[in-house]
Amino acid sequence: MSATGGELADVQKELAAVKQALQKDEGYLGMTGEPLQQYFLQLNDKEIFLLSRQMQQLSAAGGTIVKGVNGGHTTAPNVPPSGPPKQFDKDDVDAVLHHMRDYEAIPQEAVKALRALSSLAYAQSKSVGNNDQILKQVMRLLSLHPEESMVQVYAIKSMCNMAFDTDAATNKLNNQEVLSALLQAASLMPDDNQPKVLSETEKKALAAQKPPEAALKAGEALARIVAAEAELLQPNAAGGADKANARAPEASTLAGVFLAACYGDAAWHAAVLRLVAQLVENEVINMQFIAERFVLHTMPKDKFGAKGWLAMAKAAASSSHCPELGNALVEAGALRAAVQLMQRYTEEAPVALAGLEAMASIVGTRAQALQAFVDAGGVQRIESGMERFPEIELLQTKSIRALASGVLWSDDVQRKAGYSSKRAVALTKAAMVRHGGSEELQVAALDALSRYLDKAGLTADVLEGGGEGLVKAVMARHIGCSKVQKMEDQSWTSSASISLGSQRAGAPMALAGKILHGQSQAPAKTRAKVNWSQYDALEFARAIKTWARPASTQGLSSPMFPMRQHWALSHIH
Fold first, then answer.
1. What residues form DSSP beta bridges with 58?
2. Who has greater pLDDT, 449 or 536?
3. pTM
């Protein structure tokens, strides 16, 4: 077994142990609760990384295993000939290839050969780019010398020049090993798609970062590879049909880039978004082209790729690089594709969480996305995730916020979609009991219950089965938590356009007043303040005893949840 395979097996074994500990509410290596959940997600990411490395390996001559990107290989390079390195004809392709093979162990000689190859590829892109042996050796040198910057630069420059030829770009460079290597290099480019507002100092520091030369050339190579497909799809000179109509969808170079990125991290996703934004700006492709390639032609075949696809969908729909891409994704059917991946991997918590976040990002505040979400059965997936993974606190918290927005949907939409706020109440209270120590989840849950009281009049459902004691216990247990105890009561009221997953200030205090003092109809300003110090932790124990029954959420249907035109999901990330 290779080093990669052994490490992967160890990670998968530990993943199973952690998952079992979470399901049984047990500890693992001294961790419980949220720290253990975060460790579980980190292990899952590591599993994806190791599997992608394994999948990117390539069988070479003599049984050698060559890895495309991300470090390491399983066999040593060929032993160079004895004596000083031989001279070679830099204008002869065969001579350059032989030198790359004979002296692959020596970085300086590899650079000499690659520099010559780069020039030849520029002058003879068709013959060099379509030579399988040359590309194979270039990839091997990348793998053998991951820390040698000049090897990396000239290897990528060579591929970049090969991409000048359309056939080489679409048939030879369009494979997962090559694309992964290019994405790995391109991901080193500083990303200006920052999630926060930067200070002037931070902006200057970001602008001062000099991109690695390999990253620049890798981005250029990827752009040429994708542009080659776009060129093939243009009408021919006589105005006839597209020349590429007969190509199978899998042959799409942009889809190949997307698929490779599914097995990378967030930096790879950012690199792809920069790439497509540049091509759109240069009028090489349009948003419809991008969205269709991503949704219709990029379907990963395993759970690791599924999680990556969903994570990239989330990033794409909210990217500042491509602000119009979200609408195009909706039109291309991204929501249905996301739901299909979640259905295919229903036993995978990371997929459920990534799917929830992807749907939230795609829908956002886009009115046209709402019906698509309903038609795809998106909320059914949210409900399913809550039921299947009650131990995953983050998933439960975001799902609670998402379902609570259903009370704002119109009666007509609720009826057509079969929305059940009663079921949402039951799922919310079950999560409150399971995660009594989570401040974030309890705040989200109390806010959700407040909405159910206000908008749906579900007082009986909230109180059923010891709901009053549950709320008392939560407030008592979190007596010192500012998020729970110190919210401004006067600002909790929401509008009809409240975002899915948004948090209203003061909801826990308002809810407590309603349940315990019968003031559900009282104006916000007149609600009595409650002295929660009179309740102790015994209330929480009683609540758990009442609610910790497997039947608490059994026997309830799983209808598709509808949405109203102003529903937004962007706040559950």
1. 66
2. 449
3. 0.76
